[in-house]
Amino acid sequence: MQKWGIIYCPNSSRFRPQKRWEKIKKVLEENHLEYDYVQSENAASVYRLVGMMVNNGYHTIIIVGGDSALNDAVNCIMDVPREKRDQIRLGVIPNGKINDFAGFWGYKENDIEQTVKWLKQQRVRKIDLGCIRYTNRKQEKCHRYFLNCLNIGLVASVMNLRRKTRGYLGSTLLSFIPSSLMMIFQRLEYKMKIDINDEEIKRKMMAVCIGNATGYGFTPNAVPYNGMLDVSVIYHPQVTQILEGFYLLYSGKILNHRDVHPYRTREVVVEKAHKASIGIDGRLMNAPEGPFKVTVEPEVINFLIPQ
Question: Less Cβ around it within 10 Å: N or C end of the chain?
């Protein structure tokens, strides 16, 4: 088996993060795996390190990190010519503040042994990516890929708060509680105009979630291998309906809420999202200038999945 290239992204919310790497290293050695390892210095370094590994001929690249690190990895791989990209297999050992994409496949943060055994089997599935194409403040044409989802409006702000509270509280569930309460005390709505499947929606909305995968519970039926995007458009519910929404979100039934309107499509055009935050795979991005388009790129990444 060819050597793996492993990028370790320390989780700043962990006590003694290096001890986590020692546990992972032990499991890798017990499975007799050959690998080269580098540690990311900061969030901005993952893209550069993945590029370094691609250029040095590694065909299996494992990210020990969360959704944001995976996002940086796929954006680097997508900048590689197709013939070279097709030789790369991307895997994950969950270690981030948010690990929803790893969780979609059944990888668990606290079960390193099982994760490594699955990765060792080298079972590959070609997966889709979402892509936002936009113009930045310098009037440059830009794009960014995502594995899980793109959020517009209040949910983007909540996910950003969830990342911060996860650092303090150390629990995904506990971090969701104060993040979600924000939806009650910060009752925001945004003037939006979006086009989905030839339907124009022009009104005030609380949030829009465009999911390539489960979208942190807001697009629970989305899967990253059907060539489609799931979209949840969330209007502004009353306080009592927000409380009902919490229950439905955590039970995986958010689409049953009366103020959540689901769609399935290959393209979303956002003509207007006035002052709304935009989050991509759980991390806020600089807001585009003017309209932007979100599409799906089918079967473009080789991802290592469980048996």
Answer: C
